[in-house]
Design a protein that fits this description.
By secondary structure, the protein is α/β, with parallel strands linked by helices. The protein is about 45% helix and about 15% strand. A hairpin with a 2-residue loop joins strand 25 and strand 26. The two termini are about 60 Å apart. Bound molecules: iron/sulfur cluster. Iron/sulfur cluster (SF4) binds next to helix 28 and helix 36.
Length: about 950
Amino acid sequence: MTPFLYRIAQSFYERYGHDISQLAFVFPNRRSGIFFQKYLAEVAGKPLFSPRVTTINDLMAELSPYTTIDRISLLVMLYKRYIELRQSDETFDNFVFWGDMLLGDFDDVDKYMVDARQLYTNIHDLKEIDEFYLTDEQIAIIKRFWGHLFFPSTESENKQQFIQLWQILFDLYNRLRDDLASQNKAYEGMIFRDVAERCRRKETLDLPYTQVVFVGFNAITEAERVFMEYLRDTGLGDFYWDYYAPTLHDPYNKAAFFLNDNKRRFPSKIDLDERIEQVPRIELISVPSAVGQAKQATDILQRLIDEKQLSPERAIDTAIVLPDEELLLPMLYSIPPEISTVNITMGYTLQHTTVAALMDSIFQMQRHVRFSKGEPRFYHIDVKQLLGHRFIAARLGDEGQRITAFINGNNRAFVSPGELGRHPLVELLFRIPATADEAADYLTRLLEYLQQDTAADEPAEATDEENSPVGFSAVEREFMYHYYITIKRLRDVMTEQRIAMGVDTFFRLLGKMAASISIPFRGEPLSGLQVMGVLETRALDFENLIILSMNEGIFPVKKVAPSFIPYNLRRGFGMATTEHQDSIYAYYFYRMISRAKRVFLLYDSRTDGLKSGEVSRYVYQLKYHYRLPIQEIQINCDIATFSPTTITVDKHRFGIDRKLAAFLSGGDSALSASAINRYLNCPLQFYLQYIEGLERPDEVAESVDSGTFGSIYHGMMQHIYERIEGDREQVTVTADHIDAIRKDKPLLTHYLEECFARDYYKTPQHPRPLTGYDYLTGEIILKLIDKTLEKDRSLTPFVYRASELRITGEAPISGQRAVQLKGFIDRVDECNGRIRIVDYKTGKERLDFKSVEELFDSSATERRKAILQVLLYCKLYKMNYRPASPIYPAIYIIRNLFDKFEWNIRYEKDLFTDFAHVEEEFDRCLTACLDEIFNLDRPFTQTTEESHCQYCDFKLLCKR
Ligand code: SF4
């Protein structure tokens, strides 16, 4: 394969030899110029003075007296003029999107040398249209458009607004251009137009070349056409069009749209005499994933290396083309390690970068900041999200984890800067800028910190994740740098132009700027694997082409640049339309594959959501219109269906026997009723939680959850009865006691605040008044407490004995061993000659049971866990206190306090008033259960009842 640019270099060197240095070669982009220079050096085989190699944009800029203005300054300039003309108070960040659109239109108006007055003014009146100097076709098209928009006269509000806006556009366009000209500045289209108008006026342009050779163009704007005609007519211009592929001569192929006109207007002085007869070997690969295409591209590269079609040291003949820029990073991270040099030439929108995600998180955090006593408080989710960002987490290391643990452990929904620690990055990150200027300073200092740290730590040649100690790739550093520059530029322009804005507006504006800034990667293209966008393939040829995203809508691209100028007017005024776009992309595709040996076309075959999974029209054309042989390969992603394996844990392993022994007599642990209930629910769950001590990590609860609710209720009840008890050994609670407490609202509120501080805010030393949602929760708890006291009043007089009573004991098991047991009894009192063991329950419970065996039946779906628990407490109380009175278990189901409240347990439908009735059976069942737990030959297994897994924290582990 002889590349087109090689042929140009060869032909011109043959004709001009060393005099080639007197010529200028103009290319559609820089990359093609650099490849041309490389080929010229190869052709010459010896050093020679290079001709001038440039792009059309650079050449136009050289010929114009204007310098190009940066985009942000241009937008601000336009905004000021717009506000003035419209007498509007629209904010700058609202203006940015359509300000951009207007600039795009003005650029087009100039590049296509449209008469802006005709386009933008006076055409709301159809009569006036005829007076303009327009061709009949133009008039017909414009009448069609305006007739539709403006008649009948009942215009909608939208139309009115559009018309009002439309009517100022000519003034806006003119004033912007005047402002720019007065500063010797211009946007690209203005430069093009300036040069073209001078060509029309036949002014002499300063071009110190014997020839100006245009190479590899296709679609040209009116200004470019005028410029080329000027050079052609002055004998300076020479033109080389790459229309050699047979497909580009096919009149049915849109790619050929510009061919005849270009060749007729701008002939070549040298006949390259090229014929392309080879047909590339094409493989079409469907992949049911976007990112999966990058993986397939990697496999293709590997295959090419294995087949010796690609040499890792000379990967320059192979290109990966990315019509969808979002695949750039997945692609870069997938390139085989053998290929050490990669050259990227494409634009990548700043918005999709990791640094943009960091900025979004910062903006989010700043928006949610609250102030308390003049000090900022950061919302815990925002803080954790920021700490989890790759750049920040890598820098903070353990400190980030410490902060997260602190937030979770202390249930901090809002965190103060003091609580976040003194790490320099934390101090930089968690600040509150008060003005837009401070916001810019805050962000730039943060990025400087991240960049400096990275640069200091990284080896100079580190270019990939592995080499980078903080995981910043060279590409990401580049993104960071561009974001940094954008912030600085935005701040400078705001200051220069005296545009005032708040912090929020500054952040929003920055986000919008990032959405519209494309970072141009321009590496050293003469080495390594070439990764490029579609536009960058112009005039270049590669032996192996791997084109990703060959999906309809992506290649060819479906979306058109947003514009205020309707389609019909664009056509009427000879501006680029969607048809142009279709032709341009078809040309890119057919030209790019025309000299390749191997072409791999990959597309995303998924059809879910908005994705059609449709392959590009070009593939259909190759298959059915040109009847080219295409090898089709379908990649299937194996969706592994896990059939979860059964988990059993052998008690002889992992030191489990030792851990179990800690619960036996003399050990330092004891089993609670909850642990026994857990075992009966699922032995594996018991093992993970009580033997291995696995716990759900702390999380911040932003409202009182059911566990905390129960703790606060328990705490309140304890406070109340301890208050009644006072310093006495024992107290008989009377109705008066209870009435007094129920009336003492300040006291109850004080207890409530203490319990909230201890159980919810985790600041036991600092009780505080409840507010907002917490206040409402507190009111509910107070009502429940009052209702409980009302129920207790009906039992008066009774003797109060204890609250939250800690009790321990031992239960014998086989092998002359005993298991240590423990528990906290919510309340013990003595009522009607019986000792009541009271347990408060906030959840749903049933208070009846038929047998003790049923309480220990691990397969039961509605096992009475609460009854088992309170019976165990009865047993432990009896062991500890040996009371002469019967022991009477009671369960207060809090949720039933206002409706059918009952605290009595029923045993086979009878009131259960004496633990002694079941004591023996209870001991037997308990021993059997404990024997099973401590039987080393009986592994811990998963429950067979999947309903038991519903609220288990280990569901992921078990895949239940
Ligand atoms: S998920 Fe089910 S089987 Fe697994 S530990 Fe939890 S309760 Fe047991």
